[in-house]
């Protein structure tokens, strides 16, 4: 039975966006919404994880949890899902440090 999914992408290759748009609608740039079976959802997510490159992606779909949904991520993100007693919370990681430029002496 089909269920709704949302995939949010950041800086992914254009061909991945094209592949996702075959099964979903890109409602705003990088946000894909659709209603597909669990099998198609898993195959789409596998394609995302294999081709995300230096970008990032998040999948949100219905699941039998207290919250009613599950979150999957691929790529490097500052927001990381963390399980806290059965609830998925979002943990922020530290911002990448910028190397200071040294002036020539």
Which tags fit this structure?
single chain, 105 residues, alpha+beta, five-stranded antiparallel β-sheet, flat
Coarse shape: flat
Q: Rounded to an integer, what's the Rg over CA atoms?
A: 17 Å
Uncertain parts: none
Number of strands: 7
Helical content class: 10-25%
How would you describe what is shown here?
This protein is 21% helix and 42% strand. It is built from 2 helices and 7 strands. Strands 2-3-1-4-5 form a 5-stranded antiparallel sheet, covered by helices on one side. It is flat and about 65 Å long.
Summarize the structure.
The chain is of the alpha+beta class. The protein contains two helices and seven strands.
Q: How do the strands and helices of this protein lay out in sequence?
A:
Elements (H helix, E strand, L loop, with lengths): L2 E8 L3 H8 L3 E4 L2 E6 L1 H14 L4 E7 L6 E7 L3 E6 L2 E6 L13
Antiparallel strand pairs: 1-3, 1-4, 2-3, 4-5, 6-7
């Amino acid at each position: 039975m089909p269920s709704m999914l949302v995939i949010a992408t950041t800086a992914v290759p254009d061909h991945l966006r094209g592949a996702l748009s075959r099964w979903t609608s890109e409602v705003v740039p990088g946000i894909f919404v659709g209603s597909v079976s669990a099998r198609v959802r898993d195959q789409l997510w596998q394609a995302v994880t294999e081709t995300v490159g230096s970008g990032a992606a998040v999948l949100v779909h219905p699941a039998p949890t207290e919250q009613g949904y599950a979150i999957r991520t691929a790529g490097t993100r500052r927001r990381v899902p963390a399980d806290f007693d059965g609830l998925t919370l979002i943990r922020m990681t530290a911002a990448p440090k910028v190397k200071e430029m040294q002036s020539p002496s």
